[in-house]
Amino acid sequence: MAKGTFLRGAAALAGGTIVLRLSGILFRSYLCARIGDAGMGLYQLVFSIFALAVTACTSGLGLAVTRLSAEGGGALATLRRCVLLALGASLFACGVLWACAEPLGAGVLGSELAVAPLRYLACGLPFMACCACLKGWFLAEERAAVPAAADILEQAVSIGAGIGLMNVLPPLEALMLGSALGEVSSFSLTGLCFLFFSRGKKRSSPAPLRAILRIAVPVVSGSFSRSALSSLENVLVPRGFRLNGSAYETSLSQYGQMQGVAMPILLFPAALVTSACQLLVPRLAAAAARGDRRAIRRTAERAIRLTLTFSFFVTTLLIVFADPLCRFFFHSAEAGNLLRIMAPIVPLWYVDSVVDGMLKGLDQQLFAFRCNLADSLLRVAAVAVLLPLWGMAGYAAVLFLSEIFNASLSVYRLLRVTRLEADPVAWVVLPAVAAALLYYLLSLLQIAA
Fold it and tell me: Which structural domain, as residue segments, surrounds residue 295?
């Protein structure tokens, strides 16, 4: 992939992701005012259950299409085979989620209000799964603008339909039906673009099923296991708050503030990082197929250094402007305290995301599976133990310990695979010192103002 093409693709994905996350924050601000923190907590819990079905039918196959197409496999035939696999898995997941919606909603989440929303979300799974494969093909074809446009359309339809339907349906049902309609619109746009851009492409033989499964199965297994444990963790978090002495509504409100308010702001700047990360997968896969170890090391070194520099800068801004950000978007001073406490975790979050993507591009998805599984198991155990004792402080401690563990293992593995020598001064010390100086400068300006 040429440098100019990579930058254009990264810019398209970054622009799309920024639009998505900014609109998501504004939409969550509207939802907080409409349904309250407790409603946001239930909203997040429903999506945590839905994430199980999503990972079962979308994770892995999109990556397989991108990797195998970038490595020179029969792109169109491979895509067709992956779409069929995704369609079968998604129909099965849709049936399971529909049938289990009542015990999951009323039993696990403890609210009858979650049953119908889970069934609405189930209907969007086949469209989501097939769309993930098509997006993987576009990334391998260096046409990142198409997935970005599809994501923006999905967000616009989901938000618009959700707000409109709230006039005729209960809020949670309206939001989830809007989300399903967003998936249909995204698939429709991606499919039409595929029909246009695939015209005239050579139809060579597909990659062997074994090659597809070798990439997809570890990713699906890891994502599903982690998603299952994450869903369990998300159910345990409000329970832990209640054991710490909070009432049911209060525990949902605390969970809603963390997941619905602080997290979106913390992860908003990561749009630039995650966009570049998606394009690093085909780039590293192509370099590995050529045996170009020098290009792999150069790419990995630049990605880590730039990610850490950017993330330290973001951490400083989040600490200094935590209160204004939360007041502007969510009218919540308490969320500002949460945001300030969680800001130092940003460098670990961002670098872990980039390194995880690079490892998948270098055929290290099995290691990523084991690492993520171990991390999720530790998180569930820590949530069960620490939250009843320390409440929100315990949850913050769990997130910090989890990211230290996961990021350390991932970076160590990348250094071994690429034979790259770490440079702690250039990667960590200099960005941290610059961020500290920026913090003091901004603090002085605030005092002077």
Answer: 3-199+206-448
